[in-house]
Each structure stands twice: as structure tokens, then as C-alpha cells.
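Record type: ASSEMBLY
Status: queued
Input:
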Amino acid sequence: MKSILATLALTTALTIPGLAMARPVTLTTTLNNYGGDGAYLALYVTDASGAYVGSLWMAGGKSKYYEHLSDWYRATGGDTAQVNGITGASVGAGRTLEITLDLADALFDAGYTLHIDAAVEDMRDSPNEVAVPLTTDGAGTPVTGRRYVASFAYDM
Amino acid sequence: MIRALHRWPGLLALALVTILSLSGAALSVFPAAERITAPQAEAGLTVAALADRIQAVYPGVEQIRRSPSGRITAYWFDQGAPGAAVIDPATGEGVASADPNQAERWLTNLHRSLFLGDGGRFAMAAGAAAMLILSLSGAALVVRRAGGWRHWFAPLRGPLAGRLHAEIARIAVVGLVLSSTTALWMTASTFDLLPDGGSMPAVPAEVSGETGFALDQMITLRQTPVAELRELSFPYPGDATDVFTVKTDRGTGYLDQGDGALLAWADLTGWERVSETIYMLHTGQGAATLGLVLGLMALGVPAMGATGVVIWLAGRRGRPRIRGNQPAGRAKTILLVGSEGGSTWGFAATLQAALTEAGQSVHVGPMSGFAPERYARAERIILLAATYGDGAAPASAKGFLDRLNASDRAPNIPLAVLGFGDRSFPAYCAFAKSVAAAAEAKGWPELLALDTIDRQSPQDFARWGRALGDALGIRLELSHRPVQMQTTTLTLVSRRDYGAEVQAPTTILRFALPHASLWQRLRGAGFARFHAGDLIGILPEGGAVPRLYSLASGRRDSFIEIVVKKHPGGLCSGQLTALEPGDTVAAFLRRNPGFRPDRSRAPLILIGAGTGIGPLAGFVRGNARHRPIHLFFGMRHPDSDFFYGEELVTWQDEGRLTRLVTAVSRGARPHYVQDALRGEATQVAELIRNGARVMVCGGRDMATGVADALAEILAPAGLTPAVLKAEGRYVEDVY
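Status: finished
Output:
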């Protein structure tokens, strides 16, 4: 299994929500063997009202395909500035994407939800593939996605 | 320059373009297969009706897509489990798996990226660029070779590899240009270099907040035929703020799930339309037939790669090394070469070697490097000039005429021009003639009058060499052997003698077919494959220069036959006509594809005199298809040199020969073959007007006489021998 380890500097809005209290969080996404080309994945956060707050990671470098990540695309208007500096390669079937980044403490136990939109060429678009509330208790508990994600977990 | 632009990208990118074209050809099959197998929607079916049908079968439907082939795919969730299928639009039921075809996926990844991600995409884009450069430079070469766009499809001559290369190219080039330009556009699009991104409408700020409006009542969907649909995405179940998203050939819109209203719409941009059209042209998705045609054309690329390498290797072998070349400023003889394929360089090397041996200092260079101010010690300038196409300068003579015409006056160094060409082309030695004319106009002193070498004839070259030696006051024996020929031993089987009574002793010699190895047969090398009209080279004992004779038989005849006239004092003809059955000679084969009947059924007019009957008799003998053949044959006296007299009667009975017209030159009223033509003027003109082809074989004077006679005969029809030559309908084999 190939794993991608990315450590982000404190650059995005999510990592500095006013209070400079942050902790390293590892996001582990493992895909099932869906039998297609590499999947594009958008990891982003919405608040309690469902409004888009910011993006954590974009797996997939060609912005012309972002419209297939339809919830993320609708929320951001396809704005690539949202994922500047936090974009990596698409993730192959059966592979694991592992990202470590510093997330603000305030994001946890405050009604925020982490979403993953997924899309694969010539296969189903899967917006909201994963939607998991960010809570300290939920850390380390794997969840399964709708179509492509075999397991997703965040660890602190 | 164009040739270099064709050769180097071709050799460098050979592997890439081969992979591109083979995988592309294989991929071209899939859109056609999908078009045939996918159940198509009935005419007039609306998206509303289709979506309603599918939702009735799959209540959890989330997205419906229509591919350009018309295939409809639906994606749904059933109690949390994802499902997908190809849908029969008539029922809304799934009929086939929607999983991607693994073979197509594998080929696609090979074709666009060699499985190497973005680096592979760049490599393949470079391959496409190489293909484009090759196509354009190749087209320019074909045009130059044929003598203009008008002659794009003119018949080709020359070695098989070159002909095949150009034959495939002039058909496939259209497809290759299209495939490679669209590939480059698609690469640019993939890497966001083009502003052709999707245009999505702004997200509606307010929705009705209701859900459950019936799909088949939505106005927009009722007005959209299935043929225009690309994609319909459903809102999340239970989320009243979500909307339907519909994409069609015209644009993208959002529909309210509570009242079916169109909340927002954005048209496709012009860039998007262009990119989609280009995608269709490249992949054949939505244009399956075009895709198949492009795929077939792509299959020509490996063949062109193989023949291209053969041409390149042959060209490399053909150009010899020049030893002891002197600097231009020190040489007494300046020898400049205008060569296209490289063979004229071989003659230059022979001449340079002979002159050097005779104590001369010689500088050899391309005509394009003509720089008279540098020739400080030169006493003579010799130009060896081939011709390209319709009289254009060959590659190594580019710019020579411009430089000469631009100069105030010609150098005061005596000049000799020797042209190289093929008499069967209308523009025979045309470039050498232009050079000689320009030199004369500039008052350039003459060392030797313009002379020409027909089809690399070593005899012509040796004759010219003696004239040059006379002019220089030295003995110059030029024995040019184009390539070291591998000879085969031929054994004489029978001989028939003619013409002694008319002081023209001539013999028809028949040799046994030599054994050919399997490898020779596979390659068609040597005597494993030959046709009447090809040439046989014989190196006489004690002679340095091989003599060429036209073959009167093909491989199918199972013997090798030539007609040889004994020349007084002729070394080779003397030895050949002295052969008795069982004796042997060493011979090699020189192909002569320019002098061969085409494969059509158009009537043939064969004209020959004396030993020129040889290949013509071979054509008649091989005419098993009973194509109409009219043979005009000139002889001295029917009782003495009527070669093939008995066979011609038999062939006429068998239907291989339609008509025989003879002309007899000895007697009370001398009659030549051109007179016989004039006598049949009406019929000859009629035949030619109806597409007949003319083939002439014999001496130079006879060929000139025949061309004059045909010019007279054809004038009323507005045709000339030159026009027929340009169309490939009038070919000569002259010696």
C-alpha cells in the first residue's frame, strides 16, 4: 500500500480559527477495489448549518475534472484557490491516502462535519461519499463510504 | 531541410508513434461497438419520460447519464448499496453492466500516458507533436516529389519501400494530421492551458423548500429530448434545499424539486463547444464511423515506420565516403553535387577518385555551398546535378540558381554540367538544363556541353568521363558501380539466333531460373522475384562496368530471357552472344518498377523496335487476364529479325495479344514503327482518349520519333505525350 504523508504548515483558514490552538490530525482514507482509474477526492469541512467552511485536501491535480466533485464544486464555485498548496495526486483503487495536518481545536465537538466527495472517470460521481462529524470521541473510529471509500478515520 | 525535418523526428519518435497509433487503432473499435450494442432511445422520447421510467424501476436513482453513442447509464442506491447499469430506455430496466471495460481502460491509459501519469502524458503529447511534424513535412515531400498538389495521387515510381511509404502516407496523412492536432488540443485542455472549463450556473439562493414534484411534469425535462441529454443528477433524498442538475448539449441548469421550475441556466461556452467537438473527432465517441476510419489510417503508421527505416538505411548505404577531399581554396577541380536521394554522390565519389588518381586536386561539395570567391586556384568547375519532381532543385542544390542569378557575372572558370535523371519522366534532367541555361545566360565559359546520365547508367557515365578526359588532356576511365552487386550464376538453356542476314546479329538467350533460398524468397531478393521489364546486369569478363539488359520474362515464366544484339567490338554483347547451352554468366537483378504495366484493365499500346521487343514480348506473354494489348513492332526484315515471330502468332490466338502492327525498315519503302503509328492514327488516338497506356522500349532515336508521331496524332484531341507522362500513362525504357 502506498501512503501519502503530508504535513501542512499553518496556512489554511481551518488551521488558524482565531485561537492559535491546534493539534496534528491524521486523516486515513482507504479505497476499495472499484475497478477504475484513480479517484479524485475532495476533503472539506462544513459547519453546523451545512455551510462550507474550508478544504483540507484535494487528491487530483486537474481542475477541469473538479466539477465531478459536485458538492464541493457547488460550495466553492470550483475555486481552485481553496485547494492551493493542499493538492496531491489522485488515489488508485485499493490504495490509501494518509494526510497529517494541524487542525484547530475549535473544529472539534462544535458541530463541524468532514465531507469527502469522490469521482472516477467513466464511473459514478459520488458527492458526499463520506460525511463524518468531527468529535474528539469519534477519533480513530473508521467509517465506510457510499461507493469508493472502504474506510475513513481521523486520528489525533 | 524538409527531409531532415521528416527523418529525425521520425526515427526518434518511431517507438512512441507506433504505440500511439496501434493503441489508437485498437481504441477506435470501442465507440463503434458501443454504438451497435447500446439500446437506443425511441425517437421523440423526452428526458422527463425517461427519468420517470428509470425512477419507477430504481427509486433510489441518483444520476442518469447519456454517452455520445446513445448509451444510457443510471446510478442508484438501494438500501445503502450502490448500483449501476446500462438502461434500456424503452423500459427503464437495467440490461447490462455499467462497469468500465477493462481492456478499453488499459488501452486508454497506455494511449494517453504509457501508465506513467503526467510524465507519460507529456511523452505521448510529444509523440503526437512528432506525428504532426512528420505528417506535414511528409506531405511537403510528397508534393515536391510529385511536382505539385495537383499530382497528389499521381502514380509513383522507385524502390518498393519508398513507394509503399508514400502510397500509405498520401491516404493516411489526413487522418494523422487530424488525430495529432486534436491530441495536442486535448492535452492542452487536460493541463488547463485552455479556457474551456465547465461553465456552471450560479447556485440558486432560494428554492421552494418543497419536494416530490413529479419528474414527468417538469417543463424543462419535458422539452428536452433524450438525444440532447448528457446528465441528470437527482437531489439528496430528504434535503429540501437540494436541486436537480441537468446537463444537455446546450448547457447546464438547476431545477427545483418542489415545483419543477428552472432555477438557473448557463449555456456552453464557445471554448467548451470547440473542445467537445475536438474530443469527438479524436475519440470517435459520437462519430463512430469517423473513429473507425481514423483507426484504420493510424494502422498505416507502423508500416510507414518500417518502410521509413528501410529508406533511411538505403540512403545511408548509398552515400559513399569521399577520401582525400581537398579544400575549396586549393583544389584545381571543383566538383559540386546536386543530389536528392544520395546516388549522385556515388558518381561524384567515382569521378573524384579517378581524377585524384590522375594527379588532379579535387574539392567535392554540395551545389548549395557554391561560393566562387573561394575557388582561388580552380581551373574548372564540374556540376553533377540530379532533378527533383517537376524540375526542382534537389536537396543538396538548394539556392544554387538563386545565387548564380543574383551574381553580377559568372566565374571565369570553365564549367561542365552533367545531369542525372530518368528519361521516363517528363522533366528529364530539367534542373541540370536550367543550370546550364542560366550559366550560358551569365556568359559562363564552357568546358563541356551539357550531357545527361539516364537512370544511373554506368555506360553513359563512362562515355562522359572519356569526353572530360579529352577536354583535360588526360586519360579518364570512369568505372562506376552504384552498389557492390551480389551476382548470381545463370546457366544458359537455349539460344535462338536472328538478324545475321541484315547485319544485325541478335540472339534471344534463355537462362535457367536459379535456386532461391527461403530467406531470399521471403524478402523477394535477387531473382526470387522479378518481372518482365526489370533489368539484368552483367559484368563482362575483363570489363569494369556492368551492362544492363531488359528482361523478357518474369519469375512466373520460370526462366530468364533477354534479347541481345551483338555490337561490333562490344565486350559484353560479344561474350553473351557467344554463349552455348550449359555455359554460365554472373548476373544481378536491378528492379525497374517504372517500366511495368499497371494493374488496370485499360488497353496497353506497346511500341518497340529491334531488341526493344524484349520486355514488350514479356508483357504479352504474361497477359493471362487478356487485357487488350496493341503491339507496334519495328524490324529490319521479317525473314531475318522478326523476334518472337512465332510466339506472337500463338499469343494472338490465345487472346494475350489483341493486335500486332509491324513496320519493316529494309526494302523498297523503308517503314519505321513511328510510320506504323501514323498509319493507325485514328485507332491510336481513340484508344488513348479512352484511357489506354503507352509503353515504349528501344533506342533513343526511335523513342524520339515515336514521341513526335504521338504528338501529331494526339494534337487534335488536345493531348500531348508530356501530359500523358505526367499522368503516368506514357512510360519509356530507352537505351
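Annotation: Confidence is low (pLDDT under 50) at residues 1-13 of chain A.
Annotation: Residues 70-76 of chain A form the longest helix (7 residues).
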